[in-house]
Amino acid sequence: LIKSLCWGFVADVQIAIKKHETGKIELILSSSLLPLKLHYQNQALRLCLGSTAVGAQYGAISALSINNDCSRLLCGFAKGQITMWDLASGKLLRSITDAHPPGTAILHIKFTDDPTLAICNDSGGSVFELSFKRVMGVRTCESRCLFSGSKGEVCCIEPLHAKVELRDHPITQYSLLAMASLTKILVIGLKPSLKVWMTFPYGRMDPSSVPLLAWHFVAVQNSVNPMLAFCRGDVVHFLLVKRDDTGAIHVTKQKQLHLHYDLINFTWINSRTAVLLDSVEKLHVIDRQTQEELETIEIPEVQLVYNSSHFKSLATGGNVSEALALVGEKACYQSISSCGGQIFYLGTKSVHVMTLRSWRERVDHLLKQERLTDALALAWSFYEGKAKAVVGLSGDTSKRKAVIADRMVEILLHYADRTLKKCPDQGKIQVMEQHFQDVVPVIVDYCLLLQRTDLLFNQIYDKMSENSVAKGIFLECLEPYILSDKLMGITAQVMKDLLLHFQDKNRLENMEACIVHMDITSLDIQQVVLLCWENHLYDAMIYVYNSGMNDFISPMEKLFKVIAPPLNAGKSLTGTELLPFISVYCCLAGRAYPLGDIPEDLVPLVKNQVFEFLIRLHSAEGSVDEEVYPHVRTLLHFDTREFLNVLALTFEDFKNDKQAVEYQQRIVDILLKVMVENSDFTPSQVGCLFTFLARQLAKPNNTLFVNRTLFDQVLEFLCSPDDDSRHSERQQVLLELLQAGGIVQFEESRLIQMAEKAEFYQICEFMYERELRYDKIIGCYLRDPVRKEEVFNYIHNILSMPGYSTEEKQSVWDKALEHIKELLLLSPCKAADLVAIHFSEQIESIITNLQDQFLLFQFLRSLLDPREGINQDLIHLPPCITEQFIELLCQYSPDDVLETLKVLEYCRLEETIQITQKHQLHEASSYLLEKKGDIHGAFLVMLERLQSSEQLPLLENIEDTLMKTIALCQRNSHNLNQQQQEALWFPLLEAMMSPQKLSALKSLTMQVLNNMAAFIALPSILQRILQDPVYGKGKLGEIQGLVLGMLDTFNYEQTLLETTTNLLNHDLHWSLCNLRASVTRGLTPKQDYCCICLQQYKRRQETADEIIVFSCGHLYHSLCLLSKECGVVTKGLMRWMCYKCNSSNKGGGKLSENFSELKKGTCRCSPKLHQSLLPAAGSESVLDPQQIQAFDQLCRLNRGTSRLALLTELSRTHGEKHGLLSVAHGDPATSSVFQNETFQLHLAPPPLVEE
């Protein structure tokens, strides 16, 4: 944007104001003078209309409008009058005083495209149509009300104006008018008859935000139609208006623009660009299509004039609504106007103009700031058509691009001159290089984007050649474009300089990469070939020969001569030494090396030349002792498989004529002669050859002949049992040969015999599968050390999958059963899984036949232990098998017996107990006795283990056994009477309190006392201790610590109980105080209107309509609540529920009977909580409102773990007596607030809440 100040106009206005003695310049709109500035270069003041007398009578000017031909001016005044002036003569034509109700100011007055029709909007919110006529020389004005302010106050109007070139648009005949009230937008048509075409409600808005309207014709989908922009607050809506073939008007919504600021003005500057003014007087230039903010300018110095006094109608006594007056606080409708791409802003002391710079001005502005790179980038965005807010470009696309390209060429030449002039004359060479590296790539880039290589390699290159550093940077900049094939045609001189530059810099790889991407016509072939041979640039050399001279053989001959000796000697090749082979492969495949394709007309010729080269008996300059066919031999040594693959592709391209057949047969004979008659090829290489031959022979149109004896020799060679080297390689080669069709060349029985002899089990599997002898394949898997584990999947697939006959499956089943022992030795777990699925009826016979007891144990463990993953529903075994498994388990893994018994589903208790007792597994025996119901027997087993000093030499073992015994007693004490409980706990206590153990086991004895106190009364425990003969004779010193600890714990728990009682009493008193305060506190509504009908609460006077106020602050009419089914009568009392809170909490829907009772104007708005407290429908007991409110208050004030939860946890035992020394050793999975790591007991009184 360009911001300028109308100095000449302002000066003339100041003189006019002084002349008429009307006051200061800031009163320019509030005076009766009308300064009219026509847009001339000298900004001269043409007319000064009116007088001080008119101002005294009509008040200040509040609105202006000029018609399309600038012949008439309409003025609206603060006291409601309207005047029309002739702009040619300055005469007053009309003075209208009865167009609208008196006592209201004119807020807006607008001419339509029809000069006899205007629209006005007054401070009463009404809109009127003014029709100007002239009858018998008398000028009249007829007024018609379009919208009454009693239905909603309109505060903004905007008729649709069309430019001269769009006057014939079909939609202009409707004379559309947009109106914005405080609640909605309306679009109406004034012609041919009044009709409403669209109504669009705002929704919830800030009441102080200003409604804004703006029309503009835009091009959408190859048609030009009017678009209405309307906004209020921070959202701009775009509506596209179209007329269909029937004459109806359709309005469609476009993409909305969401902003982070509130608007007070919206102005179109062209069809794509809008200028927005926010509430802090900051301008934002926005592109409509992309919604991108292009520029932001602050304009506080304008001191914008606001129309607040007219919206408040101060000149007529301020008789306007509060809503309209609130909108008027930020209204500046009459202070901003646009015309011809310019926007005028009226300030208190000046007039400012904002104009979009043309594209050329924007570029020149950057050039003046010496931002040449930014200027080129901006110009290129104009060239591509991606720039925003473009002004000054006309014509079709090619014409616009030509204009921009000429300007960019000027900038590039200026850029080059400036770069050379500003080059530092002194300093390090790195400084100069950095200077040119920042500039030269930019120049090269834009020259290539503009496709001006003539400019790049002539004028600009000549300029850069004046400086050696700049010239080097220029040449290096060309490299990426050459490598990406964006720059093919380079002049011979530039190419020569480029090669010399790379050679001087010793950047030979870069030079080679550039050569192979260049047009061969731009190269000096002799210079390049010589350069390539001297520096071993073989890629470039091959490219020049192939592309420049269509010679594909000469470079191969020279390169083969260089690399053949080391390759035949067994050395591996890397890097450039591989190029001959790659070149041969490319030529045979019809591809050019290093890139591109061979011309189609040359492909057959090139292939023939390459074949002739390969099948030469000797090389051109070969030695006397050179082996025959050196070229083929070299390629086979390099990569046999790839060379044969390329040959196969080439054979497919051959035409089936006599010459092609001869070529193929000759090549095959040469391959056989080279590879079969020599021993310097590996089995893999020989196998690749015969695989290639087998594939060729298997083709339906095969014409090749190969002696079958050769295949027999290859079979003997690959299956030689004396050669153990490369066993897997030889087997894989033979397998590939068979799969490629070579099996027809062998006798199958002899092949199987030799494969078994050579231990080629994959070959055997391949052959057996062809013969459908699937049972034989099991033996192949079992004998193959590499694939043994796969036999299980193979058997399962054969027996499970469809596609196999019953006989085939039966033979596999029999074979698997025959080898079941081998399968078990291989993997007991997988074998058990296989048996469970396919051999479930044979399990007993399998167990009987297994002589190895440990193997039997592994099998039964995998089969019967559910933790192994086998589905137990598949197995139906007699109990004796399970007992046999437990017997073996006690022998081979006694530590796992207990855990296994816990998961076993089927076992006989009596027999299992005998087995565990036989092997003296006390814990397992105790578990089984407890499971049987013999609690005392289980306890005696554990007690015996505890008392057996021979089995428990370590304190850790004693502690472990004791904990398990205590757990046994705890689990079962709940189901025993007092006598039975004492029979468990007292023997355990006596065992731990024996004098010889007491000193070392005091802590363990304390554990017993703590746990038994939960079930045995404290006096009984003390009495039992004192009845002991040892302690009954006065030797209480040994247990003094135990007794004192019990008494201390008792005192602590007594104190804790008293403290808890005091806290609960405190809570009750505090809750009642808060409840009383909340019940007596008054309610304050959040708003003064009903939340359902949005009408003020005092608008109704019906006797049956009451005002309902909820504690949440929402206010309703009682009839509105009843219409939403938020009230119901229960036991003669009306129960209400807050509609808004209930909808937000429950997601809408009708309410049930769960309503809290209201006193006059009160209700709780916690429907979910009430639903949990109130009984279901039909129940007789209903909590009263005070109870519900008290519980709500209590739950809301407590934080963290509630005391109610603590009391619930403490009462979980349902009245059972707890020991005073009890310590929680229960199931860790049990949920308890006391087991939470963050649990804390708050002993401080609750905080006070302000009433």
TrEMBL record:
Residues 1090-1141 form the RING-type domain. The keyword Methyltransferase does not apply. InterPro entries: Quino_amine_DH_bsu (IPR011044), Vps41/Vps8 (IPR045111), Vps8_central_dom (IPR025941), WD40/YVTN_repeat-like_dom_sf (IPR015943), WD40_repeat_dom_sf (IPR036322), WD40_rpt (IPR001680), Znf_RING (IPR001841), Znf_RING_Vps8 (IPR056939). GO terms for molecular function: zinc ion binding. It comes from the Eukaryota. Transmembrane segments: none annotated. Gene3D superfamilies: YVTN repeat-like/Quinoprotein amine dehydrogenase (2.130.10.10). WD repeats lie at residues 54-95. Keywords: Metal-binding, WD repeat, Zinc, Zinc-finger. GO terms for cellular component: CORVET complex; early endosome; HOPS complex; late endosome. Belongs to the VPS8 family. PANTHER family: VACUOLAR PROTEIN SORTING VPS41, VACUOLAR PROTEIN SORTING-ASSOCIATED PROTEIN 8 HOMOLOG. This is VPS8 subunit of CORVET complex. It comes from Anser brachyrhynchus.
